[in-house]
Amino acid sequence: MSLIETIRTNTDTVIGETELEDRLHGNRPLRVKLGVDPTRPDLTFGHLVVFNKLRQFQDLGHEAILIIGDFTTLIGDPSGRSNTRPVLTKNEILDNAQTYLVQAFKILDEGKTTVVYNSEWFDDMGFEDCLKLARKMTVARMLERDDFAKRYAGNAPISIIEFLYPLIQGYDSLILNADVEIGGTDQLFNMLVGRALQKDAGKLEQAVITMPLLIGPGWQQEDVEESFNITILADS
To answer: Which of 122, 127, 177, 214 is 20 to 30 A from 171, comparing alpha carbons?
Structure first.
């Protein structure tokens, strides 16, 4: 099995596959990004799927970059949501982040994982910087997202700050010079924004790899995180 076939195993979508294959045969390890927002103490079965793919990249000799979205958690990822997420305090977010890491390193090789917090760069951004970033996206483009479109059509509230979330996630990729970003299928729009921001800055665009969401019969997408946790991993 070729490298690209190995990486494609169990994935849903691979965007930028040709460029990814070229980079896999290059002379440097790839920077593979996975972001998690510590919205609760426990990781989910959905996290297990993407962490396993990140571990696969590690085993192939590439650099795993785990982003703890302590800043983005203050906004709340709108992906797959029918309403706005509740706001957590910074202390709650940091407490959750510590338990996330304990559980994550049951799967990832801690010695080969770079952990970063996206508040490291967002805390230093001024309002003018935020406006410049917001200029990169239109409202029409945001409404192409299925969850936003449904909420708009149903007269459900969408805050301006939720519109900014895909840009902020994409900006992480720009700052980190990510070669690859991994996420669930619900993250596809956000990860493509990362490609767009990299292209706009004249940088190599990241490949985007989506993994299937674990949704059983009768479950709504937004219910998955609420109901399946993998606390057992932390106790094993």
So the answer is: 214
